[in-house]
Amino acid sequence: MRLDWRARSGRPLTGSIRVPGDKSVSHRAIMLASLAEGTSHIRGFLEGEDTRATARCFAQMGVRIEAPNDGERMVHGVGLRGLKAPTAALDCGNAGTAMRLMCGVMAAQSFASVLVGDESLTKRPMARVIDPLSEMGAVIGSAEGKRPPLHVSPALMLHGRRFRPPVASAQIKSALLLAGLYAEGETWVSEVHPTRDYTESMLRGFGVEVMQEGDAVGVRGGQVLRATDIDVPTDFSSAAFFLVAASIIPGSDLTIRDVGLNPRRTGLLDTLRDMGADIDVLNARSAGAEVLADLRVRATRLRGIVVPEARVPDMIDEFPALFVAAAVAEGPTTISGAAELRVKESDRIHVMAVALAAMGVVIEERPDGAVIQGDTHWRGAHVDSHGDHRCAMSLGIAAQFVGDDCTIIDCRNVDTSFPGFLDLATGCGLDIRPV
Questions:
Q1: What is d(CA 270, CA 248) in angstroms, rounded to the nearest whole number?
Q2: pTM
């Protein structure tokens, strides 16, 4: 059933909020805890549809996962070789992270499995993990264009290899490292640009030796994962919507608590500061291998910039929100080197360009980005998020500059990454409500 939103200008964002747990960490916590020996305690788990789908998949394969409280999981790991054949397809829902990382795990199992997803996930490219895993010996069938559903057959043996994927992607790297835990020899992945290192960091937390040589990271097959406790930081990608909103809505003064500041995730923070944003990092502290801090954001006039291409992988999930900041900024903002946005939950370049243009933004869509002129004369519009949770939330922020009502259609998937978004948003000043 489709869910639409109606939004318009609210009040300045004020107070203090805390966004949900990090989706990337929550996915990996369930996976690694399931493959570990012993019981792991996960705190701060994101109660989103995507991460719950990952938990359901591993429960289908015999892993006992308990939820004593909201945001908590007790995972009774079965070890690398302890998974059992599922009796039905493993449904990843809308979670591309789950499907791609699980490919690395399922490729090494002694039983066959089928990975499926929702309509959006079924359109997303999987060749980027199928091809290198096949080089290791994996047997993975797919629909036309190497898209889901994926049929994974037992492999005789996986063999470690050295890879340098053409696309900077933590999902590719993670899938290969997970497969490498089962492979003969060593598996190495070097990157054209460093990506988020959650998998490497968490593997070390589970007792795995992760090797580093320059820009390459590697694992040896045959290691044992030992259960551990995991504190999931809050999700920078979820905080990003409020970072942008509080930066551009006049009179705002908002503090976002306990935000995870992994340096491979915070490209938007650097970019907003380059644009003149007033953001203070307060109370920085360590939480395991991660750094948390409170971010105090006060509204100010932003200016358009040329976004450095080298920063793109560190903010790839935050571009829909950045498009909105650029639309409010003084002067043009140029985004390039971001063609990866076209193969996310939607073609995010096109979805945001069409929707923002309907709202009065002067925007030039380009193959790998866009030029956004800023200084927008906003108007009400009926816009389509195309079921993309990040586009929906970003358009909700954009609508705060519209005097008339703005209708945003197809917003149900927001719960995949940010359950409770509407309550949090309206509580601190945004005017967004379900139709």
A1: 16
A2: 0.88
